[in-house]
Amino acid sequence: MFPLFLPIFLLVSIVRADVVEVPASSFNSYGELETYWDYLYPWGSDHNGAARMVGNSTDHSRISVASGTLTLKATPVTGQPPSTAAPYPAINYFSGAIHAKEQININGTDAVGYQVEGEFSSPTAVGVRCWPAFWLTAVNGWPPEADIGEWKGTNNSWFNTFNTSTVVDTTIVSWPGDYSFHSLKAVLRVIPNNTQDLSIEYYKDNVLEATHIAANFYGAPMWLIVNLQMEGSSGTPGPANGATYQARNVQVTRLTT
Known about the structure:
This protein is mainly beta. Helices cover 6% and strands 46% of the residues. The chain has one domain: Jelly Rolls (Sandwich), CATH 2.60.120.
């Protein structure tokens, strides 16, 4: 409860403060992980690549946290039925994915924007057919989708904004293939006098790399996902020994001003 005689300007600043919905400490322990994140994709274990996501509160063989770092590990597997998600690829790996419990929904009132950020170490050497990502996707239908980090077996990362299924803004930035950590950030905000679209600023290592207009993102709830998919859009065959993808200091901040 507020004290009775706080100055009006202080009350406004308290009420309108930005809110950290997922703190950078969420990978410090399994307890914190499970406070802010759920295992697998929001819709289950399968998606559009060659990896089936595996993990829960008692199985951390492919989804683990330690010392503030999330590690997703893909390992080869045989004898699995195909993916249950279109285009129904063969499953050649078990791997890991998590999604934030907090949905991203910019409605112009209690959320005029979101800042989504983190540091990532990704398998990106040319020819390594891995498909890790750090991305937002629609809760209801599709699109919207915003790929804050997407790697496809090259020394690059993609910033993608899907306005429709065929209209996509893409900015590609270079990414070292030495498994060092680098930061990515997306700042989504309302556009004045526009209740349909958002703007998205994409940053790598705190340098603004692109500004996209996100058509029809306003008021559309989205999931935040960290996953290590395999093959698929990155090509085939995937690495014989699997792959590892790491994230740390992932933070989601709801912007109120």
